[in-house]
TrEMBL record:
<dbReference type="GO" id="GO:0008270">
    <property type="term" value="F:zinc ion binding"/>
</dbReference>
<dbReference type="InterPro" id="IPR026516">
    <property type="entry name" value="THAP1/10"/>
</dbReference>
<keyword id="KW-0863">Zinc-finger</keyword>
<keyword id="KW-0238">DNA-binding</keyword>
<dbReference type="Pfam" id="PF05485">
    <property type="entry name" value="THAP"/>
</dbReference>
<dbReference type="InterPro" id="IPR006612">
    <property type="entry name" value="THAP_Znf"/>
</dbReference>
<keyword id="KW-0862">Zinc</keyword>
<dbReference type="GO" id="GO:0003677">
    <property type="term" value="F:DNA binding"/>
</dbReference>
<feature type="domain" description="THAP-type">
    <location>
        <begin position="1"/>
        <end position="84"/>
    </location>
</feature>
<protein>
    <recommendedName>
        <fullName>THAP-type domain-containing protein</fullName>
    </recommendedName>
</protein>
<keyword id="KW-0479">Metal-binding</keyword>
Length: 119
């Protein structure tokens, strides 16, 4: 079975690009959050842990300093994916439940400017 890269905008899979390495998302909750945040797939947080582990991130999303050794097939323990293409979601594909939650959250964090003019 092919491993598909779950990074948004990346269509690599182990059948098409078998030269790449594919890394499963860490089980450790802190690192998992870092990965999912970086690859903009926080929607995967709602999945069961076991399913998240079956999601893959290809080696194109890791800087060379993230790899252990000279090859690109083994990551350092604390490696996180940092090379992500910025993709603009078109509305037809945005079935992401967290996206609206996050934007709602941001609007709470940045309240509209209160014009407190005192005369
Ligand atoms: Zn990828």
């Amino acid at each position: 079975m092919a491993n598909y890269c779950c990074v948004r905008g990346c269509n690599n899979n182990s059948q098409k690009n078998h030269k790449l390495s594919y890394f499963s998302i860490p089980m450790d909750s802190i690192r998992q959050l870092q990965w999912l945040e970086n690859i903009e797939r926080l929607d995967l947080m709602v999945l069961e842990q076991i399913k998240v582990k079956n999601r893959w991130v290809c080696s194109e999303h890791f800087e060379s300093r993230m790899f252990a050794g000279l090859g690109r097939n083994k990551l350092k323990k604390n490696a996180i994916p940092t090379i992500i293409k910025k993709v603009h979601l078109d509305s037809s594909t945005s079935k992401v439940p967290t996206a609206s939650r996050i934007s709602g959250y941001i609007s709470i964090l940045t309240p509209p400017l209160v014009t407190s003019e005192r005369r």
